[in-house]
């Protein structure tokens, strides 16, 4: 056999990794084997498989291949959903590494663990699922739905498969799966992809801003196991800047740093609500588990100095919370790093009554004296040209523009342009009451109603008012609600609806389309409501006040979902957009002759009783004194 004949009998495709020709035999007259026939210019019969382009299929066999033969096909199962655990918000990473982790078929539980359980526990029922982990919806796995607690063990998740596994567990938790804990064993950090890595926010918080920084970190992680010592013994000096031991140590640290980012992502999932208290305590709450965590040590707080008077999110991802204390100290809580650090002391008259962030990430502070000031993160003063008048009670910013609204005690609603410092609108007081007496001005809260140009305010004289600066200076609609001052106000998932709360403990939903119409009232409060925050897209609202309890209500059904006792009075509350808020599934109720309102009251009463029972159990038992002799007689 001549060399020329050999060339024509073997596939002409050059394998890029091995840098040699493919050794598969080809049919007479063809240049490529069946696997590489798609590279033949005259090929019309073979195409890459839609499920996995690493292999090819004949066009005439495509339907049968996808349905029965393809090992990468997705089965028609309820727990298989295309790319449910894949982050599609970012383009695919440009640094692919050796192969794509997302193409690997990974098991929910390693085969070796299943075999060990089968041997040690012969009576244990084992269900084995094989599927790409990026498509696995744990909440739809039938045998997990009725489990009281699920423990996940995931072994050797290669590269980005670890991130898919973390998202799979997180998605399961958000869909009512009761995960009690899990253990992930990652490997092959050099195969992680930036587009799928869950700890990107953490890396940005420590100065690694882009994919190139991530690629460098990923490359350094290979130094932990790439055998520099053997290379040195063979006479190959690859150390250059660092010694062999230094490189190995850096490699181990890089691996740990990648895992710290994943841990930060998981910790951030536990933080659904942030509250600022009158004692100065700053707490994070997990709504699914009904638990809270004290960020600040409570024994070192002085309420006269550290009371939290205002809070706001300082980034779009809602991972950082800006906090103002009574002594005008501004602090920043980073939920990814778990740090609560001092920024600077804002100089101004009185306490800080409002905090906002501009598009340029400058901090806006509104002081009780009326001073509106802009600061850089380091405390450098940017602007102090606005004075909104004394006794400010509220300052709020329009989300889409650099415009703020202010108001307070005998200080009417005013609108300010931050770019020019000009006052563009001053509200006019309402007409005297039926006794021709002047109505006091007491603006307690305000919100911009989206892009409508209208503003809703609440007052200490129990009024809800809507202003339209384009129409007139007086309110276009007004409603007197009950008899107590209204301090808490929030927009919600319903367009042009607001939820308000007063100092007596009443909270209601109002429709602002046309006239102000009350929709329904929420139950379960005891004492003044100081702060409300509703989710912008989901039907949930959280509230807090002087009774030391954070409550979660369903906006539409009025149902009280959660009560979390936080031990101290609270002033401010913030609800994250991404949270673990769930409505646990319950068996369907049998029909009764009673109305739905009575059933709701019963369910709320059960929740209240269970919470009260928990409080009683946590109390310490006080021993009883012995009776005296004359008492026995």
TrEMBL record:
Keywords carried by this UniProt record: Metal-binding, WD repeat, Zinc, Zinc-finger
Biological processes per GO annotation: ribosomal large subunit biogenesis; tRNA processing
Gene Ontology molecular function: methyltransferase activity; zinc ion binding
SMART domains: WD40
Skewed-composition ranges (Acidic residues): 597-613
Ranges for domain Methyltransferase TRM13: 123-272
Domain CHHC U11-48K-type: 46-71
Residue stretches of each WD repeat: 399-426
InterPro entries: Methyltransferase_TRM13 (IPR007871), TRM13/UPF0224_CHHC_Znf_dom (IPR022776), WD40/YVTN_repeat-like_dom_sf (IPR015943), WD40_repeat_dom_sf (IPR036322), WD40_rpt (IPR001680), WDR74/Nsa1 (IPR037379), Znf_CCCH-type_TRM13 (IPR021721)
Coiled-coil regions, chain positions: none
Tree of life domain: Eukaryota
Presence of the UniProt keyword Calcium in the record: no
One Gene Ontology term, aspect cellular component: preribosome, large subunit precursor
Signal sequence extent: none
Domain (Zinc finger CCCH-type TRM13): residue spans on this chain: 10-37
Biased composition (Basic residues): 623-633
Gene3D superfamilies in alphabetical order: YVTN repeat-like/Quinoprotein amine dehydrogenase
Zinc recorded as keyword: yes
Region (Disordered): 581-633
UniProt-listed PANTHER family: NOP SEVEN ASSOCIATED PROTEIN 1, WD REPEAT-CONTAINING PROTEIN 74
Protein name per the record: tRNA:m(4)X modification enzyme TRM13
């Amino acid at each position: 056999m001549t060399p020329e004949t050999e060339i024509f009998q073997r596939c002409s495709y050059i394998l890029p990794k091995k840098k040699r020709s493919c050794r598969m035999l080809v049919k007479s007259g063809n240049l490529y084997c069946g696997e590489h026939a798609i590279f033949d210019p005259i090929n019309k019969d073979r195409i890459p498989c839609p499920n996995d382009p690493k292999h090819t299929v004949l066009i005439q066999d495509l339907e049968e291949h996808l349905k029965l033969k393809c090992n990468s096909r997705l089965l028609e199962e309820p727990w298989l959903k295309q790319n449910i655990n894949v982050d599609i918000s970012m383009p695919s990473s440009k640094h692919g590494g050796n192969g794509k982790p997302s193409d690997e078929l990974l098991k929910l539980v390693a085969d070796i663990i299943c075999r060990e359980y089968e041997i040690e526990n012969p009576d244990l029922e084992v269900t084995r699922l094989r599927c790409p982990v990026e498509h696995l919806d744990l909440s739809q796995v039938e045998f997990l739905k009725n489990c009281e607690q699920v423990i996940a063990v995931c072994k050797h998740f290669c590269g980005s498969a670890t991130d898919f596994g973390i998202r799979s567990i997180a998605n399961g938790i958000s869909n009512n799966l009761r995960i009690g804990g899990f253990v992930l064993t990652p490997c092959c950090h050099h195969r992680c992809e930036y587009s799928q890595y869950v700890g990107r926010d953490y890396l940005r918080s420590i100065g690694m801003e882009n994919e190139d920084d991530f690629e460098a970190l990923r490359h350094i992680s290979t130094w932990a196991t790439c055998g520099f010592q053997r290379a040195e013994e063979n006479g190959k000096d690859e150390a250059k800047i660092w010694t062999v031991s230094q490189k190995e140590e850096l490699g181990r640290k890089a691996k740990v740093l990648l895992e710290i980012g994943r841990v930060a992502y998981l910790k951030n999932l536990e933080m659904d609500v942030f509250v600022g208290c009158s004692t100065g305590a700053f707490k994070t709450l997990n709504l699914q588990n009904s638990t809270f965590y004290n960020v600040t040590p409570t024994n070192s707080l002085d309420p006269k100095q550290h009371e939290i008077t205002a809070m706001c999110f300082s980034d779009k991802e809602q991972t950082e919370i800006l906090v103002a204390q009574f002594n005008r100290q501004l602090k920043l809580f980073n939920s990814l790093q778990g740090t609560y650090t001092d920024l600077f002391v804002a100089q101004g008259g009185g306490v800080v009554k409002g905090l906002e962030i501009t598009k340029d990430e400058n901090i806006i502070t509104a002081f009780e004296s009326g001073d509106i000031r802009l600061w850089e993160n380091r405390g450098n003063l940017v602007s102090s040209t606005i004075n909104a008048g004394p006794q400010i009670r509220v300052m709020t910013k329009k989300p889409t523009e650099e415009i703020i609204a202010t108001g307070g005690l005998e200080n009417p609603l005013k609108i300010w342009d931050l770019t020019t410092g000009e006052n563009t609108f001053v509200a006019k007081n309402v007409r005297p009451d039926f006794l021709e007496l002047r109505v006091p001005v007491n603006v307690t809260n305000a919100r911009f109603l989206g892009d409508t140009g209208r503003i809703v305010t609440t007052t200490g004289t129990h009024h809800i008012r809507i202003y339209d600066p384009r129409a007139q200076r007086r309110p276009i609609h007004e409603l007197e609600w009950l008899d107590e001052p209204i301090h808490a106000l929030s927009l919600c998932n319903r367009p042009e609806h607001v939820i308000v709360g007063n100092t007596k403990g009443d909270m209601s939903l109002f429709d602002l389309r046309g006239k102000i119409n009350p929709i329904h009232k929420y139950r379960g409060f005891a004492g003044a409501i100081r702060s409300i925050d509703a989710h912008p897209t989901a039907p949930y609202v959280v509230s807090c006040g002087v009774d030391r309890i954070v409550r979660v209500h369903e906006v539409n059904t009025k149902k009280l979902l959660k009560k979390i006792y936080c031990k101290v009075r609270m002033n401010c509350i913030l609800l994250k957009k991404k949270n673990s808020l769930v409505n646990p599934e319950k068996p369907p109720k049998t029909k009764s002759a009673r109305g739905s309102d009575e059933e709701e009251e019963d369910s709320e009463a059960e929740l209240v009783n269970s919470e009260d029972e928990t409080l009683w159990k946590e109390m310490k038992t006080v021993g009883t004194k012995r009776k005296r002799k004359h008492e026995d007689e």
